Amino acid sequence: MPGRVRVALTGAVTVFAIAGCASGSPDADAEPSDSPPSSSSGHDHELREVEGDSAPSVSMEVAEDTDAGWNVHVRAEDFGFTPGKVGEEAREGEGHAHLYVDDEKVARVYGPWHHLPASAVPEGEHTLSVHLSANDHSSWALDGEPISDSTMITGSGGDEGEHSHTSRDTGPADVTAEISVQDGTVSPEPGRVEVEQGQSVRLTVDSDSSDTVHLHGYDIEEPVTPDEPATLSFTADQSGLFELETHESHTLLTQVAVE
Q: How far apart are the C-alpha atoms of 245 and 252, rounded to whole Å?
């Protein structure tokens, strides 16, 4: 049945990633980390040092997808993925991960599996790395180095075979959400739109400044101006957790959870 879905959730900016849970989640009553962020990791995020005895670890397996791109399997030990706490206070043993191609962040990862599209990797050989991050986006570190893993991949520089999603009018939508951005403030606060796979969705965004609205994962982009809202209409045919954000201001608008 058509309806509006709004569930409040504090969030932060950017990515397309598949939601999931990993084993080894910490005690929910654990105290927040007392270690302040230290020097930069070289990837635009501060380092947050953890003690050796309590430090998590991460490894990564990468396999080429049969269509295009790569399927990335992130194995984290003594660490729990907590997508619902993005933007909150850092707590040891939990958070999310960031994927980098060379020194450029290309995705935020909320679970053990992530599809990296071919379009995210330029032609030639590149270093793909994964860094464990805290809820506040600082990078967990041990002995001054980010807790990370890396491997080499070779990009084609194109998007051949990638699924193409365009915003289109699908008629009356099963799920709708209306979002407003005024003076940099998002209303309602960034939350999560719950959608069942196969449902039609319409997201409408109005803003007092011009920008581009982008739904990551589905790769739908629409311009928004003070005179013309952005309307993104699509069928939810991919499962996962996808972020809707503005490109110029890098503002998180909402998360779309497709199950």
A: 4
